[in-house]
Amino acid sequence: MHLLVKPYMFKFYIIAACILTSFSTFAKNPIILISIDGFAHKYLTMYKPPFISSLSKDGVISDGLKPVYPSKTFPNHISIVTGKYPAEHGIVHNKFYHRKLQENYKLGAGANDNRWLTAEPIWTIAEKHGIKTGVYFWPESEAKVSGIYPSYYFQYKHNTPNKDRLDKLVEWLKLPEPERPNLVITYFSTVDSAGHKYGTTSVELQNAIKELDALLASFFHRIEQETDLTPNILLVSDHGMVDIDSNVSILTKTLLQPFPQLRIVNGETQLYIYESNKNTLEQVKTHLTSVENSNHYKVYLAKDFPKHWQFGDKKAGIPDMIVEAIPPSVFVKPDFQVGKGKLHKGTHGFDALGNNDLDAIFIAKGPNINKGIVLPKFQNILVFDLMVTLLELEREITPGLHDKEIVLFQQIIKTKSEQN
């Protein structure tokens, strides 16, 4: 069935109704959303992980999943599960200042204060519709949004083995139907950690990918053997990875020494500057564009933020100025050394527009998913809309969903006749 939508029809409820009517998906097939943090799209051809590659052959794969700005872990993971840009869901970087709360954000802060989050994630929406969800680690999955937790979730512990996470997912999927979650979500950080510490061409990274690929193969084999379920699998990542060069790193303290009054949050690939005085901001910009090494970064006042950042509306966490590092440069502390401390040989967070190294992955396979289709790149906020559609949730989906995105969904999801 070809779906033709005219421009004047782009109202959220109409789009949602058209997509759901067209595809007639079945929520009885559970969704398993898995994110491999820091798995760059280029790793698929560089390292050819056998199980992940087989998923793509049996299902749908994209030429790349584009991160939202900035290409950091928390903003992107939360965009994936909310369908919102960071300015809308509230987590605008891994590190930033919130004017209303008068605090600097720390990873996972939503668990103690849900005001950090300003959009509902997919598990909250599903639970509202009576669908049980299980989340074994996902950024901010411990936050009680709209008074709701996932039916099953765990407090984040970084050193929890990947196998333990997957074993628990199998346990959830083996529960009796009334107790079983129909949306299961987990995330792994081992590939990201190896990319940071050792770089994108390292043996250590290759081994991390190989190990996780084998675990995923075993996990899905267990589902096949130990349950009667045929899940829809969505395998994604949040961003890629870029090798950095310590020889062109930028010492933040020296760079802004003439302006000790500034509130600066160093996010490694960006400096977020909060300053209400416009004259001071102009002085800072003039200074930054004239000093030595100014070719290693770009300076933006809020009024000049690029449109694709989606930072146009003044929100509590959006800074008044952003100093954007140009890879392979990053903003570092004076005592930084490559291979030591928190920053290593690879990173992410840069503007992903035009930087294919930062492309993430999208692979889908399942009873409601087409086979053998390669999609063009698309932005990760649409993964949320895809889950909404597969779960048959009566909800308005992402504003501005246009013809090309609707066609994208048609390519991913089988029509009713194809499913029968």
From TrEMBL:
Per the UniProt record, the source organism is Thalassotalea marina
Q: What is the lineage of its organism?
A: Bacteria, Pseudomonadati, Pseudomonadota, Gammaproteobacteria, Alteromonadales
What SUPFAM superfamilies does the record point to? Answer: Alkaline phosphatase-like (SSF53649)
Per UniProt, what is one GO molecular function of this protein? hydrolase activity
Source organism's superkingdom? Bacteria
Protein name per the record? Alkaline phosphatase family protein
| A Pfam family reported for this protein in Swiss-Prot or TrEMBL | Phosphodiest
